[in-house]
Structure to design on (419 residues):
């Protein structure tokens, strides 16, 4: 047995959920490839080209900034006012013996969405010119790792529940941050919950082509 | 109906990080040529790790429910409340929808995660061939629904950040919320450690 390069099969796809092997076929817009054995989604047709994907990522970045800088909710009680931003909400957990929980809270609503936007923007910026971004492989792996920990939509529901909870004994008004948060929720779902495997293929082929020419 | 071949029959495997299909020669000690992730046929020690995290989550779920998650003071009178008291409060206040949302996120979701992951782990250990497709679907359900349980933690964070009027009114987080957050994280990690491909490995023997 030779110790040489591993043979690879880029035209094949293996179901992550049951290990069934398939030939990759091109899909029409809106089509979904499903595994025959376990019915999990193998991959989807991507409706977004790189340009639009990047544009939405930049939009998500702007919404992220607004959502972090502006207060989400304002309250008033007997002439006293107060408001809270995302960061203050996470920091509010950092009190006394429960302080540890502030860490995952801050990660899931601030740090992880931030990293998702930055890493994806970085990758797409280069993918636009059919290039592999510096640090492409670790960035792609990190995106995959971050995905389950991004909780913008849970946070949005949390804000709504908090508003209803407090409105029983004080006056509550939505702040500008809440609209940014709602937009961010939609944008991050559009950009991050996407099949990124084809990016590997796209950039891969191009580097292989470039190597052939050289 | 003939099903497609499985990776082991063709002596290939997929990289868990980038999905590249490659020859199954170096599993356990090789690296993916495309993304440099380490290669393995199944998540290593999947069952033992998933059990450990799941059991830790179940243990933490007890203090998460018994201890108060929040302290509320209004005009001098303060009180602690647990997760279930919060649900009951909403229900009595007439906000049935919100009561239901919190109940689902903090009680129904974690409890069904315990049951489903426990069931998946037990059946996989017995190499059961029972209802494989349905079990595969249950696993995907756990993956999709799991993180919504973080809802209660974030609600406490937001109200505690807002209500800070010293003597007039104040809301503070209490230790229950730490345990509850740990339950959510531990069960998410447990679901990530579980390898759904094990469900289908029973068909090979």
């Amino acid at each position: 047995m030779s110790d040489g390069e591993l043979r690879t099969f880029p035209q094949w796809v293996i179901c992550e959920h049951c290990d069934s092997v398939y030939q990759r076929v091109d899909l029409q817009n809106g089509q979904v490839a499903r595994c025959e054995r376990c019915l999990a989604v193998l991959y989807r047709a991507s409706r977004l080209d790189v340009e639009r994907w990047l544009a939405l990522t930049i939009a998500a970045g702007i919404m992220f900034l607004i959502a972090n800088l502006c207060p989400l909710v304002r309250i008033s009680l007997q002439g006293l006012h107060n408001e809270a931003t995302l960061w203050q909400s996470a920091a509010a957990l950092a009190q006394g013996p429960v302080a540890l929980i502030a860490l995952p809270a801050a990660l899931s609503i601030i740090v992880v969405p931030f990293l998702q936007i930055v890493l994806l923007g970085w990758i797409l910026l280069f993918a636009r010119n059919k290039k592999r971004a510096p640090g492409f492989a670790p960035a792609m792996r990190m995106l995959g790792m971050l995905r389950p920990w991004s909780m913008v939509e849970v946070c949005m529901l949390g804000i709504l529940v908090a508003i209803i909870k407090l409105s029983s004994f004080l006056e509550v008004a939505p702040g500008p941050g809440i609209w940014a948060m709602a937009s961010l929720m939609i944008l991050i779902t559009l950009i991050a919950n996407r099949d990124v495997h084809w990016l590997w293929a796209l950039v891969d082929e191009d580097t292989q082509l470039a190597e052939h020419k050289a | 109906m003939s099903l497609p071949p499985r990776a082991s029959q063709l002596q290939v495997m997929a990289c868990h990080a980038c999905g590249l299909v490659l020859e199954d020669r170096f599993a356990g000690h090789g690296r993916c040529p495309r993304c440099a992730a380490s290669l393995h046929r199944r998540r290593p020690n999947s069952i033992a790790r998933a059990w450990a995290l799941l059991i830790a989550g179940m243990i933490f779920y007890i203090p998460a429910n018994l201890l108060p998650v929040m302290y509320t003071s209004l005009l001098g009178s303060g009180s602690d409340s647990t997760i279930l008291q919060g649900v009951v409060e909403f229900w009595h206040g007439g906000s049935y929808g919100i009561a239901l949302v919190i109940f689902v996120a903090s009680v129904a979701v974690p409890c069904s995660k315990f049951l489903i992951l426990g069931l998946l782990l037990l059946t996989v250990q017995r190499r059961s061939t029972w209802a494989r497709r349905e079990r595969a679907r249950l696993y995907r359900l756990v993956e999709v629904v799991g993180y919504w349980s973080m809802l209660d933690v974030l609600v406490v964070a937001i109200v505690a950040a807002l209500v800070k009027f010293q003597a007039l009114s104040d809301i503070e987080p209490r230790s229950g919320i730490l345990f509850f957050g740990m339950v959510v994280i531990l069960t998410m990690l447990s679901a990530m450690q579980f390898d759904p491909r094990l469900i289908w490995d029973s068909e090979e023997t």
Chain A has two domains: 1-45, 48-213.
